Amino acid sequence: MPKAKTPGRTGYHHGNLRDALIDAAVQLVEEGGPDNVSVREAAKRAGVSPGAPFRHFSNKTALMTAVAEQAMSRFRSEITKAVESLASDDPIERFAAVGIAYLRWAMRNPTHFQIISTRSLIDWDSSESLRNDNEAVRSLMEESVVEAQRRNMLRSTDIAETQIAARALVYGLARMCIDGHFAQWAVAGHTAERTAQDVLEHFVTLIGNDAP
After folding, report:
1. Of 121, 10, 131, whose CA–CA distance to 67 is shortest?
2. Which label site among 7, 63, 79, 172 has the fewest CB atoms less than 10 Å from its CB?
3. For residues 90 and 148, what is the distance between their CA atoms, to the nearest angstrom?
């Protein structure tokens, strides 16, 4: 699946240098991967002097962490909206909604997903916003599974394993698509996104308890 280009600013406008540098870093990743990024190259792309960015970002890791923070905030928003728009109070359906929103966002924002998924590029431990947004998404999933278990709607009694399996599945499907491996697996006549959603929905049917 070709990577979607991220609409970006063409250069620095007064008062917006930080955002311009973040946009430039995303564009550099899209063009040549994470190794293509440097603070100085982002400055050049933003149209400012090589020293200007260092008021905001002391090094490449700091710049990439800021990109990840922006991406994670959008990721959290996408998933939260999906859950809030769900009409049903069924926790299994809510659990599925989290996974589908995860897949949709990752496939439509491959560069951002790559950045937030590659911990070696960012300083995860120093970023409170990254950890908070990630925990919010994880909590939505966990609360759904706990509620489903309380209502005897799960086959398994192991909540942790169910969550890990679900997270591994959506992450793996997203990576398969972004890394170009999904085409050979996609169902004929379906988009990669549709096939991935179908696989996830199949998984959800397997974890549900059919007993009344």
Report:
1. 121
2. 7
3. 8
